[in-house]
Amino acid sequence: MPLPQRHRFPMQKYHILRSMVDENLLGRVTLESARLASRGELELGHSKEYVEKILAGSLTRREVQKMGFPWSTNLVSRARQSVGATLAATEIAKKEKVSISLAGGTHHARYERASGFCLFNDVAIATISELRTNSKSRVLVIDCDVHQGDGTAEILLECERAYTLSIHSARNFPHKKAHSDYDIELLDGTEDTEYLEKLSDGLSRVKDEFDPSLIFFNAGVDVHKNDRLGRLNLSTEGLRQRDAMVYNFARTCSASLIAVMGGGYGSSAVQIAGLHYQTVVEAYRSWKSINIDSESLAK
Ligand SMILES: [Zn+2]
Fold first, then answer.
1. Distance CA 14, CA 105 (A)
2. 51 alpha carbon to ligand 1 midpoint, in Å?
3. pLDDT digits (tens, 9 = 90+) for 177-189
C-alpha cells in the first residue's frame, strides 16, 4: 500500500532476509535465482494493454501515482523477477511440498491497473498458470497480510478451482474492499488469541468447502504490533504460531504450499527481515517434518 517516505526501505529488507537465509540455513535449503516472467505469463493475470503499458513505461501520471513508485526499468525487472520467483517456487513446491519465494505477495495489483506498490500479481498469475496446466489442481490462496488481497480476489473471481481467503484489518487499505471467497475482517488492536482463533475457524471452514491441492500463503508481517501501518497487535510469537498453523493446515490437506513474503513496514529493516526470516524457518521445519522426519520414521 502507499507509504509515506519515512516508512520506505527500498528493497533493503529483502537483502537482509537473503543474508539471514544464507548465513543460517546454508546447506539445509537450496536457494535459486529468479528468472524474469515472460510477457505471456504476465498476461495470464493482467490485460494485454496493461502489461504493454508497464513494460513500455507509458503509464499516465495518475496511473503512476496509484502504483506508488516512479516507473523505471529496474522497477519493472524487479516486478517481473518477483513473478518469476513465485512461478518457480510453485514448480518446486509440487515436488518438495513446501517452498518459499523470498519476495512476492504483490496482492493489490489488479487485472488492468497497478495499486499500492504492486505492479503484477504474482500469486494470481501463478494460480492461473497452475489451473491451466493441471486440470485437477484446486488452488487456495490464504492471504494473511494485514491488507486485504483485493487484486487477487478480483483476478481469481471467476476461477472455479481457485478459492481466496483473506484475513485483514477492516479499517486498513484498500478502503474499498473486493470480495474474496471468504473475508475475515479484524478490528484495530486485535491480539494473538483472537487472531489465531479467527484464522483457525476460517481454515476449518475452507477445509469443509474446498479441497485444495496447492496453497499460496501470503505471509505478510504487517500484522505485527510494531508495524507502522498495520493497526493490529500481534506479537512475534503470535506470528510464528500463525505461520505454523498455515503450514500445518497444508499438511492436513496433503496440499503443496508456496509462501510469499508480502508486506512489513516497521521502523527497522532488520526487525522486519527478522519476522520474514521466522516465516522461512517455520517453512523449513514444515518441509523437514514431511521430507526428512517421516522418512526416518518409515525406516
Ligand atoms: Zn500489507
1. 13
2. 23
3. 999 999 999 999 9
What does the DSSP assignment read for 144-162? Answer: -SSS--HHHHHHTTT-TTE
Summarize pLDDT for 205-250 with one digit per residue, the tens: 999 999 999 999 999 999 999 999 899 999 999 999 999 999 999 9
The pTM score is: 0.94
Alpha carbon of 299 to ligand 1 centroid (Å): 44
Measure 263 CA to ligand 1 centroid, in angstroms. 4
Of 94, 129, 110, 118, whose CA–CA distance to 215 is shortest?
94
Taking the centre of ligand 1 as the mean of its atom positions, its distance from the CA of residue 291, in whole angstroms, is 31
pLDDT for 6? 43
pLDDT at 296 over 90: no
Q: Give the integer Cα–Cα distance in Å for 83 and 41.
A: 9
Backbone angles phi, psi at 169, to 5 degrees: -75, 125
CATH topology of domain 12-298: Arginase; Chain A (3.40.800)
Within 10 angstroms of residue 171's Cβ, the number of other Cβ atoms is 11
CA 222 to ligand 1 center in whole angstroms: 6
Q: Give the bridge partners for 215, in sequence order.
A: 140, 257
Exposed, middle or buried: residue 140 (CB in 10 Å: 0-12, 13-18, 19+)? buried
Instruction: State how far the Cα of 189 lies from the Cα of 227, in Å rounded to an integer.
Output: 12
What span, in angstroms and rounded, lies between the C-alpha atoms of 251 and 253?
5
**Eight-class DSSP state of 34:** P
